[in-house]
Structures are given as C-alpha cells and as structure tokens.
Structure to design on (223 residues):
C-alpha cells in the first residue's frame, strides 16, 4: 500500500530548543523531517548548510527530506548526502542540466526530488518524471515560512497527478507552503502524497495532536 506522508518543516521550529522540537517529531506520527536549505541567492533568505543538517541527522529518528533552495545545487549533493539526507530535492529553476543533476542524486543512493516554483508549469517535468522519486510543488514563493497558500497549486496538483499516473511513474507529489488542517483534505483529494507543514505544526497549541490530525486525514487516502 502507498502511504501518504506528513513532513513537519523544521524551518518553523524554535532553534533555541531544536533537540526538543525534533524529539517531539520523533515521538509523533510524522513520517519525515522537512529541512529547508536557503542560500540567499536562489531565495532572499539564508538558513543553514550541511553542518547543521548533519547535527539534525544525529537527532532524527525519521528520514531527512532536504529541500535545497540554492543555486548550483549539483555542487553540494554529495555533501548533503554525507550529512544524512534521505531525500534530496533541487529546484528545476536552479538546474540548467536537470537530467544530469537527478542522475547525480540517484548515484548517491538518495531519493531524488525536483521542486517547482509557483510560476513553473508541471510540463517542465514531462521528460524526467520517470526518473524521480518526488516532485515538490511550491505552494508559496520559496524563502519564508508562514505564508499564505497559493490556490492555483490545487489545479497544478491535479495536472501532475495525471501526468504521473499516465506515465505509470512512481514519483510522489509533495506540497510545500501554507499547508495545514484547513487545506489538507482538498490537497489529498487533488492527488498529493506528502504534506509539508511548518507553522501549522510548530505554531500549534499541541503539535503532536496536529500531526496526528494531518495523518488521520491522509490515512483516508492511502491506497
Ligand atoms: C518555504 C519552505 C517551506 C516552509 C513551509 O520556502 O520551503 O518548507 O518551511 O512553511 P509553512 O508550512 O509555515 O508555510
Ligand atoms: Zn521546503
């Protein structure tokens, strides 16, 4: 059976208590840790690099889903893999030779993901869809947590679902940005497989219960 996954985004964690926040996710029903790497060039914000990812890996009891919002990601794939990334996602907009970069990720043994900015059509993936494990549809402009969900993502999710099913490909659809209890169900209905949730989890009164509620929504769609 194909399970739907919940990936809390550590970008919204309290970094003065990172270990505690990660233990909370370890204890919860979450499936992956979503880890946002930003370089101040591909996106206006800067977060952290492999040194911190490696520390996170030591605390994580679940796979690290590493979302690279950086230019020239091909230069750093090996290092993020060494730091413990289970999934490595690069942006299509940052890769001149996307097919080659996907191959480089696969060679490391990591799952290969490609992220699309809100303005990038899913059709750019037509010729690589069979080679990837994950498509990350950005439902906000990347760079910051806590933004409003861009509603056109729903239509994009449906289009991508159709592309994947028609090709009989195995890529999972991940939705990243502004996701929470208010829109989880409609995204799952549209064909999402992985929901990234930052502020809706870490900003909740009871993060463990929020993760459980997201998981319960998604379990209905497991197939
Ligand atoms: C945005 C990041 C997201 C972010 C999501 O650039 O890629 O992963 O952490 O945060 P929320 O869920 O708060 O929108
Ligand atoms: Zn992300």
């Amino acid at each position: 059976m194909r399970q739907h996954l919940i990936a809390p985004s550590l970008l919204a964690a309290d970094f003065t208590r990172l270990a505690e926040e990660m233990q909370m996710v370890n204890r919860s029903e979450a499936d992956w840790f979503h880890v946002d790497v930003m370089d101040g060039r591909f996106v206006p914000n800067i977060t952290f690099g492999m040194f911190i990812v490696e520390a996170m890996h030591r605390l994580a009891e679940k796979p690290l889903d590493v979302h690279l919002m950086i230019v020239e990601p091909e230069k750093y794939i090996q290092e993020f893999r060494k730091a413990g990334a289970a999934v490595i996602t690069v942006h299509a907009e940052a890769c001149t030779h996307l097919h080659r970069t996907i191959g480089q990720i696969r060679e490391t043994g990591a799952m290969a993901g490609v992220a699309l900015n809100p303005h990038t059509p899913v059709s750019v993936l037509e010729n690589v869809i069979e080679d990837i494990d994950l498509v990350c549809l950005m439902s906000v402009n990347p760079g910051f947590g806590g933004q409003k969900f861009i509603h056109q993502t729903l239509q994009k999710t449906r289009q991508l679902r159709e592309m994947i099913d028609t090709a009989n490909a195995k890529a999972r659809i991940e939705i990243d940005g502004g996701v929470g209890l208010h829109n989880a169900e409609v995204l799952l209905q549209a064909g999402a497989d992985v929901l990234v949730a930052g502020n809706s989890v870490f900003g909740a009164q009871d993060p463990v219960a929020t993760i459980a509620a997201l998981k319960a929504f998604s379990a209905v769609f497991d197939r």
Q: What stands out?
A: The helical segments are 18-27, 50-59, 77-82, 98-108, 153-167, 184-190, 199-202, 207-219. The mean pLDDT is 98.
